[in-house]
Amino acid sequence: MVVNVFSHLFLVDDAGIPSSHGTNRTSPIAHQDPSLYDEESASQLSHHLPTDDLLTYGQSDYRHPSMLASHTGALQGNGPRIEITCPDLYHYDHIHTNPVNISRPMLDIPYRENQCLSPASSTSSTSWHSDGYSPGTYSPCISPGVGEGTLAGLTEAVLCPMMQAIQASGSPNTSPRTSITEDTFLDRRPTSPRSRSASPQGKRTYTEYETQRSQSPRFGRDEPAEFYPLANLEDSMNSLSHSLTKPIPTKIVRPNLEYSVYTESQVGMFPPMPEVKKEFAVESCYFMPANWSSQALAGVCSMPVAALPALDWPLPSSTEQYELKIEVQPRQHHRAHYETEGSRGAVKASTGGHPVVQLRGYTGTEPLALQVFIGTADDRNLRPHAFYQVHRITGKTVSTNSQERMLNGTKILEVALEPKENMRAVVDCAGILKLRNADIELKKGETDVGRKNTRVRLVFRVHVPQPSGQWISLQVASQTIECSQRSAHEHPVVDHQELDHCSVLGGPQMMLRGQNFTSESKVIFFEKTHVDLQLWEAEAKVYRDKCTSNLLFLEIPPYRDPNIYHPVKVKFHVLNGKKRCSQPQNFTYTPLSVPQIKPEPVEEYQYAQLGCTGRPIMGISPPSCHLADGRMMPGGPSYQRAHCMYPAAPQHAPMRYALDHTVPAVFSGSPAHTAGPATSAYGSRVSPTTGRSPPARSHQQTYLPVHHQRNVSPVRVTIKQENLDQAYLDDGLYAYHSVYTEQC
DNA sequence: AGCATGTAACCTCCACTATCA
DNA sequence: CCTGATAGTGGAGGTTACATG
């Protein structure tokens, strides 16, 4: 149950029906002048609503004694006082158009720089300035502090904009309450003859969909749709949404809260709460109904939302001490459900169970919260998927408690990692919700397209508190999951492969376990370059007499070149016909023998730099690049052509490799031999000004010539021998190797 | 460039089963 | 055992977007 206060809020009656205290739904919003406040409207609102739950706006101290106990929020400002009672406060977020009860708000502290009033750091003496709608001083009565996200968060994220909104809705130009009857409302509620509400929020009908669509290009947080003619308060809340999701004319100063920026060395570790990185800028806060929220994960140590690293931040899956690991991967396809559909259940594992995640190395006694969200399938740029959201599955089949959060428009599930369970969680509560492409693509700033963008990954995060008060954040992403309907039934899916490598000669039999295999299924091994050019493909022999729809037995074809010296990564997929194709699976061909690398002669001064005494054994001479067995290294004549293919691609995989991994790649000679921008052995760009490649690592041991060319000085690259094979297992070098081999 | 057409993908809805109270 | 509610699954048809001529 997550409520995004930047979306729609409205009132419902005890039956969950939105309040009939309707108003002109096109009422002007976000009047900034408190003088426009209409006290009569306010009093009418107050009159029509029960009095046990209050939202209070006015001059008085909002330290309402029952604020937390009875879900009462209070607003403080310069305008007259308004009391709004909420039998239940419901909400439409951009995911669920059915009401979400937020009657007992619990929330974290949203920090929204320049858009919200920020929490005071300590006491009410802190001044919050807002020259937009309320130039006075705000005196928070409760300091949010670290992890104390209740009232302070409400104050900051909700109440101040709410005050603004209420002011707006209460303007004389706005009818406080008119016209819309409950019937009208009911007419807009789902009318499906079959009751099949989505878990747990229910679904939206096509009629609603069309109506809403015609009224608003999208329903997301940034541009909330205003499709429900609700009470004045709702308009107020809509105004609230607008006031927050659009840059409000409010200058906010938070004197006591400084931002800090992390260095690379701090990746994965985050400081205590008071330090909030700018990018955190949490745009959303959320409420959780008391009936499940705190109880569900009672005692779970969850990092306060305001300090969470952004969801598109790359985080390591392990540190020296901890490792977050997916023990059971999800199946490679899961038909996501739309808002208009019922739930399609939780993501399952290929084994029939559900994904399992474990945090290793944790010795604390406090449970931690495992966060789950839906990420993109792009492993080079893992970020929340714009078109899919995690969906909380409830019901008897779900054994794992979970709760939802909303963070920057991304829904997050939190599951407890319990020490008594060895910090292992069975994620049987995570479904996948598909958002309509049209809705998302129209979002301001959205660049992704939804069409055919149907692959996702489950992303798991955990934030481990440290004795120092810092947090170590770990993240791991699952294998990709195809979420479309079609693939579930027509595309073959490989869930498990018996082998992941063999020698270049091929020959071993391999069993594939998966789905949608047919008697016509083919298994194609192929090799592509980094730029998706196909270098090679070979069809495996399939033993059709043994095959079933879930099992495929095949014989691995030989690799095209039996004389490789390094493991070569290729892929294979299962084809059903021309277009029904499984996701590519990784396979590695290994050389017949591991080559021994002879040292290349090293200049004396270089040798001295290595800390060696005496002279190296003189082996082969440049410009050749040979291995101990006399074969050529890939730094041979083709090498230069190959590595020059990436002159200006800083994000290219080899570059990434050189930067992200401690595999040495350094030139000791002049790069002037290359035509065009020079690149290092792994494609990393050599500075045109310095002629240097990226910083050399300190543990290079063996010098290998990487190319030769007439009339130029040999250029050497240092490669730590023990890393060589592993290096080629990496994508970066694989990409390089692909290009290299393409050139051959 | 603009249009018509075919195709594939998207999205919604229906039918059905299973489970449980 | 029946009924109703709920959850989940599979399928299909209308709509929409895109590719192609």
Automatic annotation (TrEMBL):
The keyword Lipid biosynthesis does not apply. GO terms for biological process: anatomical structure morphogenesis; calcineurin-NFAT signaling cascade; epithelium development; nervous system development. It holds the Pfam family RHD_DNA_bind. Residues 306-488 form the RHD domain. Residues 21-45, 167-223, 670-703 are annotated as: Disordered. It is found in: Cytoplasm; Nucleus. The keyword ATP-binding does not apply. It comes from the Eukaryota. Transmembrane segments: none annotated. GO terms for cellular component: cytoplasm; nucleus; transcription regulator complex. Keywords: Cytoplasm, DNA-binding, Nucleus, Phosphoprotein, Repeat, Transcription, Transcription regulation. One of its GO terms (molecular function) is RNA polymerase II cis-regulatory region sequence-specific DNA binding. Residues 167-182, 686-703 have a biased composition (Polar residues). InterPro entries: Ig-like_fold, Ig_E-set, IPT_dom, NFAT, p53-like_TF_DNA-bd_sf, RHD_dimer, RHD_DNA_bind_dom, RHD_DNA_bind_dom_sf. Coiled coil: none annotated. This is Nuclear factor of activated T cells 2b. It comes from Cyprinus carpio. The lineage of its organism: Eukaryota, Metazoa, Chordata, Craniata, Vertebrata.
